[in-house]
Structure formats: structure tokens, C-alpha cells
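Per reviewer request, we include the raw input and output of the structure prediction for the construct analysed in the revised manuscript.
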Amino acid sequence: MANLSAYAARHFLWRVEGKVATITLNRPERKNPLTFESYAELRDLFRALRLDTDIKVVVVAGAGGNFCSGGDVHEIIGPLTKMDMAGLLAFTRMTGDLVKAMRACPQPIVAAVDGVCAGAGAIVAMVSDLRLGTARSKTAFLFTRVGLAGCDMGACTILPRIIGQGHASDLLYTGRSMNGDEALAWGFFNRLCEPDAVLAEAQALAKELADGPTFAHGMTKTMLHQEWAMGVDEAIEAEAQAQAICMQTADFRRAFEAFAARQKPVFEGN
């Protein structure tokens, strides 16, 4: 199995503490934009996380008071205007592959969002399983503001499922910023934190999840994703099978034995 605790990231910061890994986008002077290289490295890292049995939860954050300003104007947007269709499609498929990799990795992903969260940055937050934000954060799916469609990297299918079709249409057509209070009210953020505490609270939540039944958490993430394409009867049957598998785990027995002994269960993820 892959062991990523000693992974040497090239285009962002990577830190593993216990069972929690933290990715920090680290170009604060530019509000942490993505480049061709950082897109590809993030995609490859999330793919590799599928094989890492030690890391149980991933936190994604940005340095310097901002989350991510999206694709770098000079290093991505400019070159895209000069590419042929084959090159453009290769790029848009690569960015979509990052979304697929984040959804396919079994570890829950917690986004710690402060300041600017725009374009592809908003997508990374959207694709995370849980999002902690701040009142001063500004989340914008600003693709229309650069002459593109709002349907980027799965936004038109994922965002409406989080905040509803009407709210998603508002953001995807206008490209306007959604402030933290609005994001909380619409369900995009799970909760708001103070700016100097948002990363610590995200990491505390991640540790809480990592100390839980992590095999079962992975099953929950899989079913949340797969059931988008299922009818109710299919979903009920799929969940019956998933839960039966979880009932064979040692964590399920540990929970019963702890309950019987009036103790708190200690989960080991198997």
C-alpha cells in the first residue's frame, strides 16, 4: 500500500500529523492560484490516496488568508487562449480528473475556506466533503466573467445538489461572489469560524473523523457519490449491501463491546 506520510510535494505544502493530512496551497502573494503543474500534482496525489491506509482524512487550505483564486491568469488563462482544440480538451479533462480523484479517494476531505475562493478554487471547495468557512470569505464560480460557461469541472451537477438549483443558477450565471453568511445559509458551508481559527477547527474535525470508524466513513462517501445515479429502490438495496459489509468489520464489534461495557469505543478502521 502507498505510504504518503513522507511525500515531497512540489507545488503546495503537504503535512501529515497522525491520521490527518493537510494540503496547503502556498502562493499567498497571488492568493494561491493553480497552475498546470499544481492541477496535475493534486490529481495524482488524490489518486494515490486511494492506496494509503494510514491517512484517514484530508484537509485542504490556503496560505495567507485566502483559499484559492482559481487558475493563474498568466500561467493558465493566457496560454489557453493560444491552444488548439486538442490541447484545450486535454486541459479541461485534466481538471475534471482532479474532481474525479477527489470524489474517488475514500478519505473524507475537509476544506478550510477563508478569503478568496474563486474559479477552480471554488470547485475544490465544492468537491470536498465538508466545508468550514469564514464570514469574510468570498466564494465565486466566476467562469462567466472570463467568457466561459458555468459548467466547469462538474459545477452544474454538484453545486445544485449542495445549495439547490436556484441558488446554483444564480452563482453560475452571474459569477458573483457568495459571502460567508450566504454560503452558510445556503448550505455550502457546514459552519463559520473565525479567520484565525478556521484551519485549526478543520483539522480538529478531521481528527474527530479520523478517530471514528474510517472503513465505514469510506463506505459513506462511496454511497453518497454513487447514489446520485440511482433510483430509490436501487439506493436502498445498495445501502443494504454496504451496511452488511460494515457489519463484518471489527469496528462494529468494538462498538458493541464498548456499549455493553459502558465505555467509549476505540475505532481502528478495520
